[in-house]
Design goal:
52% helix, BirA Bifunctional Protein, domain 2, alpha+beta, extended
Amino acid sequence: MATTAIWDVTDRLDRVIDYAADPEKTENPDFTTPNFQGLRKVLEYTQEDGKTEQQFYVTGINCDPATAYQQMGRTKRQYQKQDGILAFHGYQAFAPGEATPETAHAIGVKLAKELWGDRFEVVVSTHLDKQHLHNHFVLNSVSFKDGKRYYDNNATYALMRQASDRLCREHALSVIENPQRGKAKHYAEWKAEQEGKPTWRGLIREDVDQAIAAAMTFTQFIAALRKQGYEIKTGVKHMAVRPLGKERFVRLKTLGDDYTEEAIKQRILQNRAPKRPPPPLPEPRRKRCTFKGSLRTAKKLTGLQALYFHYLYKMGILPKPRASSKRTHFLLREDLRYLNELTAQTKLLCKNHISSKEQLAAYQLGLEQEMSALSAERKSLYNRIRRCGDEEQVTACREQIAGLTRQISQLRKEVKLCTGILSRSGEMQEKLSRIKQEEIQQRKEAKAYEQRSRRRGSSRQHES
């Protein structure tokens, strides 16, 4: 059984996929514009050694995988089409245990040749780092043959799915005979769900489900959503909601067939039917960050450390001194998908006693200098291998190279964490500021409502 998907690559793809940058690779000055960085990053991601078993399962069609980035760029420059969509990123995933790496890669290469091999440059990579084997396709958006752009629509995707199913049958693999029809998900949402991470649309579904479960009428459902902080558009063609902190409304019908206005009313009607209550389930344990110390000691922190601890506290990750029924803000619930990254960044700040951006920049500079020294040492070992004829010395050099590569990889991860802290800290401060302003406004409104209620009560007593 193989599932397929395809989406466009632009300079903003780095918001969707977490790419592994390769500082060892020499940049061609002709390909360093911001737009082309998205193309370089997606090619690096699909050919990453840790996913493809030392690039054994990487094949180029009408291009060499090692220089595909430059070749695709030359094609775009030849036809003066460097703007717009840079490429298309396709995906083909197989059921766990159903295909071997050789079979999965062979199917991917056949699929790419059949669909695009006569006009486009394509890189096919088979990733082995998940339980399910999956192919990635990086397709140049401009044809090397005639300079025309690839047009992705429902018809071309249907051809991709049909060809994939046929090739699976030819290799005795199962296919989805009756795929469910519906609106396709954005890739970021699909990928987050595959990894078990929350999405903001998924959070809206959870809140709507909770409001439906607590309602006996549609009016009660609307009231329950508003109590959760949602702004609601009713009386229009398509009912829409806007959660706290979001700028745009979301039509409920786009969340799935169970979330149209008619479907919600039917689900509410089912609440009126008598049901036997299910046995109570144990309260799920919330994942907590493993930091030494307590909130009392955390209050003594300053700068970036204090910011991260306060943010995790507001997210409900760090333990609170007493139970609170207050619901975590929607903006912070959405960031649960980045919990592992937030935890790693917090640990780095605490472990190295980093409080300011200046300290963080100095620490990152030290990491980069250490990486440069190790890379130079590794390069000299590679040169020694080329000149050495002794097998034992070659083996010893390779072992040293492997050790240096592991050190460089670890340093690269820390550099990435530092870069993430610098970019994320501003967003965190902005979100906390917005939440604080909303809380102040809510307290003002609650106080004003209480004062009006008291005045009405006093007026009634006076009249009686």
